Amino acid sequence: YQRRVREAVVSTQSTGYYITNNLRMDYTGSSYKGDMKNDKMEGAGEYTFPSGTKYIGSFKDGTFDGKGTLHFKNGSTFAAVWKNGIPQEDTESGGKYKFKDGLEFSESEWNYCDGYDRRFYTETLNGLKPAGRSQKVDQEPAPPIPKGWYDCGDGVYNPEKRIVYSYSDKHFIRNADVDEHKWIVTTCRRGSDFFVGKQYVPPTP
Questions:
Q1: How many CB atoms lie under 10 A from the CB of residue 131?
Q2: 188 - beta bridge partners?
Q3: Buried (b) or exposed (e) across 194-205, using 16+ Cβ within 10 A?
Q4: pTM (global) more than 0.85
Q5: What are 123-169's pLDDT values in tens digits?
Q6: Measured torsion, CA atoms of residues 89, 94, 98, 102, in degrees rounded to the nearest 10
Q7: Torsion of Cα atoms, 133 then 134 then 140 then 143, to 10°
Q8: pLDDT at 24 over 90
Q9: Is the dihedral of CA 187, 191, 196, 200 positive or negative?
Q10: How far apart are CA 112 and CA 127, in angstroms?
Q11: CA distance 60 to 169
């Protein structure tokens, strides 16, 4: 049994069935703000996971149902039409993942950073850097990486503890399983005790 705490009733609809609430879910660390029916999430609302990821969209009978979008902390989004909490990929507006730089993933027409073209998305838009200067990340400047750690895209990875931390304040994000650990240490950019190449200098305003 999960205890839910209603912090404030914001409004009621004319039917008398729906109320808009702010809910704090103590045992899971999640929270909900939006419409409810029969003490369940139903209607339009915003559900926030402990990780900071948010679902904004339609609910029915306590689950994601209808059009809704997941907003991840790294700036990417996943928009879908949901049914009983499951995205329906066969719908016109379902199953679309968009990276924070605006690149939309397409399983059938994916020409970004494959085995033949290793350019970043911003390089495909803006062209390659001048000779002698390499671009290490899609969006510069590249975040600093502690010595011996890795940049895994949404944070920095400590291979000894097998933990991914946030870039700025080094808060815990997740533990890496065996497969992710292998992928990170064989693929991602590693922090070093010395700098190689030309440092990025922001343009003068």
A1: 6
A2: none
A3: eeeeeeeeeeee
A4: no
A5: 777 777 777 677 777 777 778 889 999 998 888 999 999 999 998 88
A6: 140
A7: -110
A8: no
A9: positive
A10: 14
A11: 37
Beta bridge partners of 45: 34, 57
The token pair at 143 is 């975040």
Does pLDDT of 170 surpass 60?
yes
- Strand pairing partners for 20? 11, 35
Helix, strand and coil percent figures for the chain, each rounded to 5: 10, 40, 55
- Taking 70 as the threshold, does the pLDDT of residue 181 lie above it? yes
Pairing between strand 172-175 and 63-71? unpaired
- Joined together, the tokens standing for residue 136 give 């290490």
Is the distance from CB of 155 to CB of 164 less than 8 angstroms? yes
Instruction: Name the average pLDDT for the chain.
Output: 78
